[in-house]
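Service request form, structural biology core

Requester: graduate student, group of Dr. S.
Request type: structure prediction, single chain
Budget code: on file
Notes: please return the result as structure tokens.

Sequence provided:
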Amino acid sequence: MKQYLVLAAFALALAAPARAQKLNAAQVPAAVVAGFKQTFPQVRKVEWEKEGDKYEAGFRQGLVSMSALLSAGGKLLETESELPPSQLPPAVRDRLTRAYPTYKVTEAAKIVTAGTGATTYEAEVTRNGQKMDLLFDADGREVKQ
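Core staff response, request fulfilled:
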């Protein structure tokens, strides 16, 4: 029994860093804040999280909920913009209907990689209380589950 407890504690310790850690603005490095303000100078209210060695800023731009992922040096890595599931590209909606017919799309987002401009679409799908996040390119090809 003791072995199982030790294994469970070890597994929990390994999983803990993978979770996002909420931060207050004072805990965010100045370079990260400066990089964010350079890209989004009009944004005043930001919620910060740390994900591994990266920082995520959650905010609203107009009516759209967004997040920006930045490196520890303040470089913008990607942006994510929420969108209604009905605004996913037709090829993505078609793929979801064919590949996941028993799931319901509960959330959707457009993710743009900084620098390259590569765009992917995220769909959160649920069935019987089980959630999955799926990523697609604009042509409806599944990129990652």
